[in-house]
Design a protein that fits this description.
311 residues; alpha/beta; 6 helices; FAD/NAD(P)-binding domain; seven-stranded mixed beta sheet
Length: 311
């Protein structure tokens, strides 16, 4: 009976972090295997034009991810259309289990499972996702100069988004479910002192509507009075947080209080031989380019680790 195959490295996730890690790992002849997950390509697959990727003045998100995948394949990366449902990092080689009841053995793992933005769950949200509904003002704000902007949320991210959008428009409305913001006092003051920013407290967005191709207005419900009304807008920025995709790693790796994978020496996790890249460990920057950069670092750290254990 032949011994089971043990891979050099498995990369869990196929967004900018995972694909960049794959490019570097394959060029180092590590023969990486990318487990694509249930949403191949990550969050950029739901975006339109990306205008802050170096070397590309404007490129559609799905096209950018396809280019990165083809780049990784060019150097020999293999892809598996699987979803990981369980891992065992308690022994070496590590075991990774797929939704098809497969056990994959590997000397090292790069986790690049990303994070999922919290959603409103209202009607029209899915229909207009990427068509005026987005989660990144830094990414998409420049597309809306002089337009009507709605930001949903009341924390630091919402304040940052509103402040950022003042570069492009003076028609900004913040909708917050509570009767006061939860952001830090300094962040609140920046917004509250700006007379051009309108604030709607104690309210939720109950419907997002449009013309079929883009958002045109939203329906708002006041949580105190029950009054429902509509306001026009060209874009809705959701700033209500995101959740790192770390469920399968609980009990296997050290996570911080927000559920992100804890970093140890840049890309190292609490288990030697398991590395991390991208939004699954980053709650601050959350940019495609920073995810890609950390994918590069994770691959280089993985290469050095493998050089020590595989003779």
């Amino acid at each position: 009976m032949s011994a089971p195959q043990i891979f050099n490295t498995l990369i869990i996730g196929s967004g900018p972090a995972g694909l960049t890690a794959a490019i570097y790992a394959s060029r180092a002849f590590l023969k990486p295997i990318v487990i694509e997950g249930k949403n191949p390509g990550g969050q950029l697959m739901g975006t339109t034009a990306v205008e802050n990727w170096p070397g590309e003045k404007s490129i559609f998100g799905p096209q950018l991810m396809m280019n990165m995948k083809e780049h990784a394949q060019h150097f020999g990366t293999q892809f598996l259309s699987r979803e990981i449902v369980r891992v065992d990092f308690s022994k070496h080689p590590f075991s990774v289990f797929t939704h098809k009841d497969e056990e994959l053995l590997t000397h090292s793992v790069i986790i690049a499972t990303g994070a999922s933005p919290n959603r409103l769950g209202c009607s029209g949200e899915d229909d207009y996702w990427g068509k005026g509904v987005t989660t990144c003002a830094v990414c998409d704000g420049a597309f809306y100069p002089g337009k009507k902007v709605v930001i949903v949320g009341g924390g630091d991210t919402a304040m940052e988004d509103a402040s950022f959008m003042t570069k492009y428009t003076n028609d900004i409305t913040i909708v917050h479910i509570l009767d006061k913001f939860t952001a830090s006092p300094a962040m609140q003051e920046r917004i509250l002192s700006n007379p051009t920013i309108k604030i709607i407290y104690s309210s939720t967005v109950t419907a997002i509507k449009g013309n079929g191709s883009h958002v045109t207005n939203i329906e708002i419900s006041n949580q105190v009075t029950g009054q429902t009304y509509s306001i026009d807008t060209d874009v809705v920025f959701l700033a209500i947080g995101q959740k790192p995709n770390t469920g399968i790693f609980k009990g296997q790796l050290e996570l911080d209080k927000m559920g992100y994978i804890s970093l140890n020496n840049t890309t190292h996790t609490s288990v030697e031989g398991v590395f991390v890249a991208g939004d699954v460990a980053d709650y601050r920057y959350k940019q495609a380019i920073t995810s890609a950069g950390s994918g590069c670092m994770a691959a280089l750290d993985t290469q050095r680790y493998l050089e020590k254990i595989i003779k």
